[in-house]
Amino acid sequence: MDIRTVMLMLAVGSTLFGLLLVIFKLDRNNPHHIPFWTFAKFLQAAGSFLMYLRPGTFDTLTVLACTALLLGCVYETWTILYLTGEKIVKRSVHVLTTAGIILVCILAIFMNETYKSGVIFLLQSVFYFLPGLLLLFKSEIKSPLQKLLGICYCFSGIVFLTASIICLGFPNQVNQLQGHPISSMIPCVSYCIFLMSALILLMLAKERSDMQIKVIQETLHKSALRFQQIVENSIEGIVIFDKDYKVTFANKNMASLLGYTVDELLGRPYISFFPESQLDIYRQQESLRKKGEDSVYECRLLRKDGQTNWFLVSAQAILNESGNFEGSFAILTDINSRKEMELIMEESNRQLTELSNKDSLTGIANRRRFDAILGHEFSKLSRTHSQLSLIMIDIDYFKEYNDFYGHVMGDECLRQIGNVLDEVLGKTVHLAARYGGEEFACILPDTDINSAVDIAAKISKRIQDLKIEHKKSSVSRYVTASFGVTTVKYSPDIFLDEIVCMADKLLYKAKVSGRNRIEFAEFQKQPN
Length: 528
Prior knowledge:
By secondary structure, the protein is α+β, with helices and mostly antiparallel strands. It folds into 3 domains: about 220 residues, Rhopdopsin 7-helix transmembrane proteins (Up-down Bundle), CATH 1.20.1070; about 110 residues, CATH 3.30.450.20; about 170 residues, Reverse transcriptase/Diguanylate cyclase domain (Alpha-Beta Plaits). About 60% of the residues lie in helices and about 15% in strands.
């Protein structure tokens, strides 16, 4: 087989091998990428094809062919360096080596024919010895095939070194070597190395890939164990749900917080932990999660013993590669103590607010509350154009009652009248308040004068029905009251204090007219 035929076979084989490496690299399901290898094969293919085309003299085409072949050897050396477990060659070394080879090949043009071949053969021997030694002594992969490939590379290095020594040391004998076995051995060795290295390097790449996968699997296993330990020992409750919101995982702390074992939690629907009052929260959160949205929320969950516990829940949606909902991951923090304290504080604040608006003696609204509600209802008239009625009440001869029966009995009398007002007005929008001393007042929104007078009459009768003895009264044997009632309709010319003043005047009229009576009138703006 002549040299040109061997070169053509090397060019075709290297091209096919390079294409195979490209296919491996582009395989999405199982990509394989070895640095420099694909480029090395395409350079070797290009160099072999140019050697096939060369006319037989050491011209520019031969220089390009030798440059490509040498660079292919260099890149294959870097590939073997990677496969043997060494670090990837530094960029600086890679660039300097490439530049050096190109420079030597260019300088070879100016040498005589014998020295040109000797220099090229010498460089090739270096880049066969280097991978051979790496495979024999430095590899992490201890395989018989690797040792065999190392021996083959070293043998090739010896052949090219021998040819180099003959060309450089015995230039006069080179012409006599034409047709000699050693001259035909070089392309044959190159072809044999190509066949053997292709097969063995693929096997070594497979072994390295398997080693890397094994290391990754071991790392993942260690990470999984570490993650499991962290999750299991976390002070937070951790739970994972499937797409149907059933528990697929729960750590021990989560189970303990709810009073279950881990096995008892698995498979239970999340909704089963929500009391009826919290179902709206569950439905809202389920909807958010199925949209792929995360959130942090507070909720009460049912324990196994039927009690409820407050949790702060940080929930994340689990989506597949297509963005479809596959489940949810949640971290639950026990905030029961904090939440109970918040509720106690809220109730305390509510009670404080209520106390600040209540009369401590009678239990109905105090003057502060009266003023606030009256202002609010008066301001509403401009929007509703309705009516607002006001009743002012004064206990008849209460000073005499207090002086004769004492303050204790006087306080009890006021309490009973406060109860009457509270019962008559009931749970309506009307408000009964202690205005001051023995005076009371009622605010009646959306109430006309006739209805207001009826309410005043009902209060008067209920007070008399109490039959609280009053020996010092000039109008009755029992405690009675006088009433001033007025009703106002919206007008931009009317002011709030005018209404109170009107009701007070009507009350005064009732008192000077004999007491135990009701005086009433619709409010009319007095002309200036």
